[in-house]
TrEMBL record:
Belongs to the TRAFAC class myosin-kinesin ATPase superfamily. Myosin family. Signal peptide: none annotated. Keywords: ATP-binding, Cytoplasm, Motor protein, Nucleotide-binding. Residues 183-350 form the MyTH4 domain. It holds the Pfam family RA_2. It comes from Cirrhinus molitorella (mud carp). This is Pleckstrin homology, MyTH4 and FERM domain containing H3. Residues 44-145 form the PH domain.
Amino acid sequence: GQLEVTLSQPTRTANGTPCLSGVPEEKRSLITQKSKMTMDEDPEVLVKGWLLREVQGGWLRQRRFWFVLTTDSLDYYSGPDRDARRLGTLVLTSLCSVLWPDKHTYKQTGYWSLTVYGRKHCYRLFTKHYNEAVHWACAVQKVIDSKAPVETPTQLLIRDIEENKFNPEVVEHIYDHNPILRYTQSPLYAPLLPFSYGSLHHTHMAGKGYTSIREEAVRLFNCLQQLESAREPIPLIQGILQTCLDLRPLRDELYCQLIKQTSVTNSCVQTQTQTQPNLQLRYWQLLTCMSCTFLPSSCILKYLRFHLKRVQSLSVDPEVESYASFIAQALEKTRGRECVPSWEEIQGLMGRQEILCTVHYPGPGCCQIPITSHTTANEVVKKIAERLGLQDSRNTFALFEQNACWEKAIGGSTIIADVITRFENLSAKDPDSDCQCRLCFKLYCLLDTDNISTDSIEYLFLYEQCHEMVVRGQLPACEDDLLSLAALRLQCLLGDFSALSPYPPLEQLFPAEVVEARALLAPVDPPGCPSFPGGLLAGTLWGHKRRQEQDQRLRARLREEGAVVMSAILERWKALAGYSRRDSMVAYLTIARQWSGFGCTLYEVDFYISSTGSFSQKLWLGVAASCVCLYRQGEAEALESLPIGQICSYGVSDSNTFRITAGDRDLLFETSKLTEIMQLMNAYFSATRRQLGKDDCISMETNPKLHPSLLELPSHPV
């Protein structure tokens, strides 16, 4: 039933003291006039003292007030006297926050500042003394930490639903009598979940235009409502997901908002029109994208799963039920994503469809593989290997990120949808760039190169990857062999020589470094070149002009040497008449195999230190199945060679230093390819153990204090 209750609100006079008019005389002694109580008389006072507060007026200035911190609030007065007027109060709850003193503000203002954020007010306080600022900040934070956590109505209702989830009548009663749980067209004025008061201006997110978590949560709901009428929802969905990627606490909030906007009561289902589910369809599409991008916390995850089951049991609409089923399955596979889904992925998720991923092979070949938001690089490699009949190969394969300038192996557990999004973002930043990124399926660990059939596609992969190394200058060979390799490449691509054949440019056949070395052997300054005249200004002008002339001569020499090299290649190409494509590939690899390091992957290192000596020049670190070798760039003989069986440990000893220990020998390398070297060595050791049936495991040395990002390296590819 109902009970009539009369409430009276105490009023205050101008100086902040309670107005006791209308209160019986015998009760007035029970009302404590706290504002007139001195500090020594009030046991709740924790800290007191003079502080400067930033006051917003006609000018931004600081004024001096007497601050008092109690167990419930931070008050400030006109002074410390008994009759001082209280000028303001900031009630402290668990949602309040404190911004601690920082040197940046001190350098700008000469004061140490602390900022206390409340629900309605924000006190920015200043003091000359650092210790005093820290003392106040610690005391305020201690009061905040002592408060019981604030719970919003949504949280309380979620708990009620969880407690009564096996009683459908009670659950439906909760939904019927609490509009905050159901779809609304009205705006949201406060978050559904509790967030600390405070600004993001002092964080690294300030540069992205974010204000506070609470304001962003309300703004998020406004964006959701715009989805109902948006002609093209994908940019809006990407923006919402990007906000949740940047501001992690908003992920649970967005899930709660989407559950709210996709919830209906049983009575509404029975009386709804045909158009009502369509209003909520965009929310279901966004919820689908969320379920494939971020996982909520355990409490919200339980609430979400209950919501999906309830929607399916209510039989709202066949389309809605399909989305609910798809989301429930996606939640079982989703883990944290590095990027917001791409345009193509969101389009696929809105229709609950897979997307096609284009993967290139060494050479001109490519294929399309259907993937989902959860497909990893290992799964794609396995699909392609089965499609090409390579699943029984002793060698292993991997996916690579590749463009015209570089390539990098992709870790086996990497989600391919994230890689595609990264490509889309790079393309959007520089749409006119010639170096567009792509995915490439290539040989990774070369465990057996001698027993590959010359008629297999694996042999073609080996040939193409070997040619890539030759063109990059990573196959040490004499110039005569390099000319023969270039001629064999032309024979393989174009067949017998023809004067009308449009052959590729020299840089696709022959190492550019060799041509440059030939051009530099000739003197840049011809004999009899006059010396520059005396005088500082004259010498500077003459020196600049002379450098321009030298550059012009060098470019001319490069063109001349390139023409000479190309002419020599064409002559050798003519001599290969009758060679088939297969014969050319076999002859090409026969020459390449003359190098003892054939089959290894080379990484550039800047210096090398061992017990036998040190080198400060650029070197090559070669990682292969049988050994790890070190080469001078361009030289075929190894400076050091460590058989795999002698390596005791390897790992990271500094932020950019790689270390290998073999017996009593330690080798240190400085390189920017730490992750890639570790990943490949892990793959070789794992593949070797699998093939030899060994269970012993090599030890891995890492230093988490120096390089924590390498503690969890990507798993090796299949």
